[in-house]
Amino acid sequence: MRTFTLLTLFVVCISAYSQDIQFKYSNSSSEGQIAVFSIVGIQSDNQTNQIITDISNLKDVLSFRIFYNKRAKLVTSAAISAKEIRSLLKAHDVDFDYEYFIVKSKSDFIEMSDKKKLFPNTYKISLVKGNEIEYPDSYPKLILDTKGKPDKKANTLAKTVWIESHPEEWKSMTGREYLDYSYKPNHKK
User: Fold this and answer.
1) Percent of the chain scored above 70 by pLDDT?
2) How wide is the angle at C-alpha 41 spanned by C-alphas 76 and 19, nearest 5°?
3) With contact defined as beta carbons under 8 Å apart, do 143 and 155 qualify?
């Protein structure tokens, strides 16, 4: 009985330790487990490609992409720990942007903060007003349902697919980077 109690305590401690860093923007979909985050410290396209290769080779990773040498989208077939991804990133001398994570360990938070101080995000948001957006010809056209009304689900999916495959066009159209979850829009009161 004592051995079982010690083993249980050990498993609980390991589980708690592995959850020191959690993805803030993650969900499950038909694609798999999706986590969106930002990376601090990438200095070249070559470095980006090496990181993509290493993470894509992990077991259970279905796809991994990096946009603008900082925004990342990870799709896995099973839950993957942020700690595992972070260890690979640190091997490339980059780190997570703490704004995209729930960080329970003070030492991890300080380490992420220090990295961000070395590589501050220089992206400035200059949003384009809705009535000033120019839509390219490749932008999805309005999809109607069988009753002639806009099909919200189909339109959302078409736009999402288009934005992911045209991130630079999206940025020039709207002034926002694809997967910029740190941006908080101002709401009228």
Assistant:
1) 83
2) 45
3) yes
CATH class of 2-118: alpha beta
Antiparallel, parallel or unpaired: β 32-40 and 95-96:
antiparallel
- What is the value of pTM for the model shown? 0.75
What is the rounded (10 degree) CA torsion for 130, 123, 121, 72?
Answer: 60
Distance (Å, rounded) from C-alpha 61 to C-alpha 2?
Answer: 38
Among 73, 93, 84, 85, smallest CA distance to 180 is for 73
What are the domain boundaries of the chain? 2-118, 123-189
pLDDT at 49: 96
Mean pLDDT of the region 142-163: 91
